[in-house]
Each structure stands twice: as structure tokens, then as C-alpha cells.
Design a protein that fits this description.
mainly alpha
Length: 463
């Protein structure tokens, strides 16, 4: 079998989705970068406080994205089968779960902000700045959840341009309001981290309004109405839980693991927190194609299975793996070349600057592993229907290997932040060996009867 698919439609679909979703992602990370740059220019304590607060936002993000990924996997198959009624039913289930997550996270953060932040660091100045940010930003959680699910629904039917438009408008609004409210321009008071939180909250509300208008007035594929979100079918809900609960749990433990990683570095000083925040933010922007390729794969594989073209999946998977490696190599080179350019915009100590450079050097190497194993497992394997494998794999690597080893490095052997960071990112390379075997055995391709709305549960042979 040839390593490369010879269908133009395959490459057109994959690269179109990857580019548009990637542009959306780069704008989204640009929002985080603008927050980092502007708050980082205010003070290092403010930067560290917001960085820790954003870890909580990241847990919410992973949970909501987990709900959304379950929606995309199922809805993209229904899209391939042209079953719009089931897409609406899945949308209702996803929206209900996402709003519930947003409300729970709001309650925890609104009532216990200092207690949550104290899990990450004991620095009272960092906790103080982070609390100011959280007490405002938590009101954006439900708006974020609704917007994310609506975008996931649209992405499942290959409507992706609205996501880019939405992210662009959010970036412009956020940057302008950050400039005005953090430093107190145009007669406004200087609010510091509170100004940044107000800017982000305002941006989330505006993007929520825009996506609601688009779905109501301009969508020509699903025609969602408000009443559709009150129609939950128990049989389909059970199917979604069977398929989607491992994704939600996997994303939750991954988001929690990232928070624990930050806590480990956080107990190594404010400089390590700031360096990690800068490095991961820059990495997120440079590596947009990596994350976008996984999202594109989910839609491509799901739609193909829904169309009944299961035999194409084997050749698609082989070609996709080659594309992932090319994307990873290019991303690593780009990150290594540009790693020092953004640091001049930060008002940070020389120690934080040095650590940030070291962290980004590590990431420029490990991104090659990330670019392969992440879309291979979360894109190919998950969308193929084997959602439990990724959960088990992430749990073993993160909670039984990486985090215990990193905690030993930091607290028992008292090694440097650099060595600890290398240990924290080592799973990105190690998972590649698992991904190669798992993907190329082709025992992850599963389907369900979209007409009967029941899980088939049968592993298909892609001959």
C-alpha cells in the first residue's frame, strides 16, 4: 500500500480544515499572549498570578473541549450519513453537559479562589494577584462553554470559518481593552490584573453574542433552534456517554495534570512560574498546526466512517502519520528559531528570561513527538471509536510516570527547574512508541448504526 493517498479531496479537506482551525487557534493563543505581554509588562507577580489563574481556565477548557470532541466524533459521522435530526439531538446533549461544567467551575472559583490558588503556590503576592483576576474571570465560564459547543457543532459539519472570524474579533477587543484597563489609558483607572480580567470577560460575552447571531441567522446546514436544546433522547444520551465519557475524563485528567505540573514548577519560585507561562504560551502559538491537524483528523475520519467508507481509513491513517511528522519537524525548527524574539516585551527578571529560553528549547524538541502522537491518538484513534484507549494511555503516562518522577526531581532530589521541565515533557516522546503500534494495528476502527442510534461495538476490519 502506498504511503500517500492519491485522492485530491482528502488533501483538500485535511489542509483546509487544518489551516482554518489553525488560524482560529493562533488567534486564540494570541489572546493569551496579549494577556501575558500586557500583564507581564505590569509586574512579574501579576504575570505569575494570572498564569496560575489561567491553569484553572485550562481545566475548564479541557473539560468543555472533551464534551465538544464527543459531539464532533458523533455529529461528524451523522453528517457523513446526512442525519441532521441526530446532529441536533447530540448538540442538545453536549450543550447541557458543557453548561453544567461551566456552572460548577464558576461556583468553585467564585467562593474559594484563594484556596484553589494556594494549591499552586504559597507566594502570597502571587495568590493576591491571581485572586483579583479569578473573581472576575469566573463569570466568563458559562459564556465560554456555550460558545465552544456551538463551534464544535459547526465544525462537525465542516463549517469552520466562523471560528476564525470569532477569534479575530475577540483578539481585537481583548487587546484594546487590555491596553485601556490594565494601564489606565484614555481616562480609565489603572486596574492591573482586574483590568485584564474585565477585558477577557467582555470579549467572551461579545463572542457569545456573535455566535448566537450566526447560528440563528446564517447557518445553512443544521438550522438549530433554541427548542432543539431541550430535546434530549435517553438512548442517544447513553450512546454519547459510552463514547464520550472517556474523552471527557481523559481531558479532565490531562487538564488537571497540567495544573499539577504548574504547581510543581510553582513551588520552585515565581521565576519558574513566569518562565513556564511564557514558554507554553509561545509554544501554543507556534504549534497551532499540530493541534489543528488533530481537529481536522477527527472530522475527516468521522465523516468517512459515517459515509460508510471504512475501507479508506487504513490508507488515510498511513498518510496522516507522514503529514504529522512533517508538521512536527517544521514546528520544532520554527520554535527554536523564534524562541528569543518575544522575551524583550516582558518585564521579567534575568532568571525568568533564562529559564524561559531553556524551556522553549526543550519544547522545540519534544514538539516533534507531540505533533505525531497527539493527533494520532486523539485524532485517528478517538475518532475511529476507541475512546477508552487514550484515557488509559494518558492516565498511565501522566499519573504513574511523569508526575511522580517530576515531583521527585523537584522536591526530593531538588534538581533544577530545567531538569524538572524536561521530565514533565518526556511523555511527548515516550507516547510515540505506543501511538505507532496502536494506529498501525488498525483495531480501533469502530462504528455505530446511525439510523438506529445504537452502538455497534464491533471492531471492523479495514481491508
Amino acid at each position: 500500500m502506498s504511503l500517500f493517498v492519491r485522492e485530491k479531496s482528502f488533501y483538500k479537506t485535511f489542509f483546509t480544515l487544518t489551516v482554518i482551525i489553525g488560524l482560529q487557534n493562533i488567534i486564540t493563543f494570541g489572546i493569551n499572549l496579549s494577556d501575558n505581554l500586557m500583564v507581564g509588562g505590569y509586574s512579574e507577580y501579576a504575570l505569575s498570578g494570572v498564569a496560575l489563574a489561567n491553569q484553572i481556565q485550562f481545566v475548564l477548557h479541557m473539560l468543555v473541549m472533551g464534551v465538544g470532541e464527543g459531539v464532533v466524533i458523533m455529529a461528524s459521522r451523522y453528517w457523513g450519513a446526512k442525519n441532521i435530526v441526530s446532529i441536533k439531538k447530540i448538540s442538545s446533549i453536549g450543550m447541557s453537559l458543557a453548561i453544567s461544567v461551566g456552572l460548577i467551575m464558576w461556583a468553585i472559583i467564585f467562593f474559594f479562589p484563594e484556596d484553589v490558588l494556594s494549591l499552586f503556590t504559597k507566594d502570597v503576592n502571587v495568590i493576591s494577584e491571581g485572586t483579583k483576576f479569578l473573581q472576575i474571570i469566573c463569570f466568563s465560564y458559562v459564556f465560554f462553554a456555550i460558545t465552544s459547543i456551538l463551534l464544535a457543532i459547526l465544525r462537525s459539519v465542516e463549517t469552520v470559518k466562523i471560528g476564525f472570524i470569532l477569534s479575530t474579533s475577540t483578539l481585537i477587543i481583548n487587546v484594546c481593552l487590555n491596553y485601556i484597563l490594565i494601564y489606565g489609558h484614555f481616562g480609565f483607572p489603572s486596574l492591573g490584573v482586574q483590568g485584564s480580567a474585565i477585558a477577557t470577560l467582555t470579549s467572551r460575552i461579545i463572542e457569545f453574542i456573535i455566535i448566537i447571531i450566526f447560528v440563528k441567522r446564517f447557518d445553512q446546514k443544521i438550522y438549530l433552534k433554541l427548542r432543539d436544546f431541550f430535546n434530549i433522547e435517553f438512548g442517544l444520551f447513553k450512546q454519547y456517554i459510552n463514547l464520550g465519557s472517556p474523552i471527557i475524563m481523559s481531558n479532565f485528567i490531562w487538564g488537571l495534570a497540567m495544573a499539577v505540573q504548574t504547581a510543581i514548577l510553582g513551588h520552585m519560585g515565581a521565576a519558574a512560574i513566569a518562565a513556564n507561562s511564557i514558554a507554553t504560551t509561545v509554544f501554543g502559538i507556534v504549534a497551532v498546526a499540530v493541534f489543528a491537524s488533530a481537529s481536522a483528523t477527527t472530522v475527516l475520519i468521522g465523516k468517512t466512517i459515517g459515509e460508510g467508507n471504512v475501507n479508506k481509513i487504513k490508507s488515510y491513517a498511513k498518510t496522516l502519520q507522514i503529514l504529522y511528522l512533517i508538521i512536527g519537524f517544521c514546528t520544532g525548527v520554527l520554535l527554536f528559531i523564534t524562541k528569543g524574539l518575544v522575551l524583550d516585551f516582558y518585564s521579567i527578571s534575568e532568571e525568568a528570561r533564562s529559564l524561559a529560553l531553556q524551556f522553549m528549547t526543550v519544547l522545540s524538541i519534544t514538539v516533534c513527538g507531540t505533533a505525531y502522537q497527539m493527533p494520532a491518538l486523539t485524532g485517528i484513534v478517538r475518532s475511529g471509536g476507541d475512546t477508552k484507549f487514550v484515557l488509559i494511555n494518558d492516565t498511565i503516562f501522566m499519573w504513574m510516570i511523569v508526575l511522580p518522577a517530576s515531583a521527585l526531581c523537584a522536591f526530593v532530589f531538588e534538581l533544577s527547574p530545567l531538569i524538572t521541565f524536561i521530565c514533565l515533557k518526556s511523555d511527548q516522546i515516550l507516547k510515540c512508541f505506543v501511538a505507532i503500534v496502536k494506529v498501525n494495528r488498525f483495531k480501533w476502527i469502530r462504528t455505530f448504526d446511525s439510523a438506529a442510534d445504537e452502538v455497534d461495538g464491533k471492531i471492523l476490519k479495514a481491508n
